[in-house]
Write a structure and sequence with these properties.
Layout (H helix, E strand, L loop, with lengths): L15 H6 L3 E8 L4 H13 L2 E7 L8 H7 L2 H4 L2 E4 L2 H10 L2 E6 L6 E2 L10 E6 L8 H6 L2 E4 L11 H15 L1
Length: 176
């Protein structure tokens, strides 16, 4: 039998109101100094798809409403809870005080390969993604409880931030 693509009605997706009421998975995404509004919008879609608790937009990261974010978010800015916090270091400090495990997604000495990461099912995680060129700030790397690195095997030394967020969210949910 040849597979048939499902129609949008057959996907049985949550409405925005139902999404807002639904239990979220115990993680949030922190976007710090993300230059590309398309990347921001893509991360909103990922956060919706994998039911993240929230997104924090920090530093120069653009905020909805903006047409470039909206174009790639496809409505996810309406479903996903988000907050702008100017100072990422203060946010990370506050989240750690509130019991969140802060995980910087960065290539660093002593980092843990994402494939080896074993999240504690009883803890909440805050995943920090940094600027497309300079990455996660050193001050955040120093505050982080863990630094996670995605194994790569090609000639490039980094992945697009939206791709990285998708990989991290999927891997986290698979390991819970």
């Amino acid at each position: 039998m040849t597979p048939r693509k499902l129609s949008l009605d057959e996907l049985n997706r949550l409405s925005v109101d139902d999404f807002k009421k639904a239990d979220k998975f115990p993680y949030c995404l922190i976007l710090d100094d993300i230059r590309s509004l398309n990347n921001v919008g893509s991360v909103f879609r990922t956060a919706d798809a994998f039911r993240a608790a929230s997104i924090y937009l920090c530093g120069i990261t653009g905020q909805p409403p903006h047409r470039d974010i909206t174009k790639t978010a496809l409505g996810a800015t309406e479903s996903v809870t988000w907050t702008y916090v100017a100072d990422v270091d203060a946010l990370v400090s506050q989240l750690r005080s509130d019991g969140w495990v802060v995980a910087a997604i960065e290539q660093a000495e002593g980092s843990t390969s994402l494939s080896d990461f074993k999240p504690d099912p009883n803890k909440r995680y805050a995943f920090v993604f940094g600027n497309e060129v300079t990455g996660v700030r050193q001050t955040v790397v120093e505050q982080a409880d863990v630094v996670l690195e995605i194994p790569q095997f090609g000639t490039k030394h980094s992945l697009n931030i939206a791709v990285t967020a998708g990989i991290v969210c999927w891997e986290f949910l698979q390991k819970r």
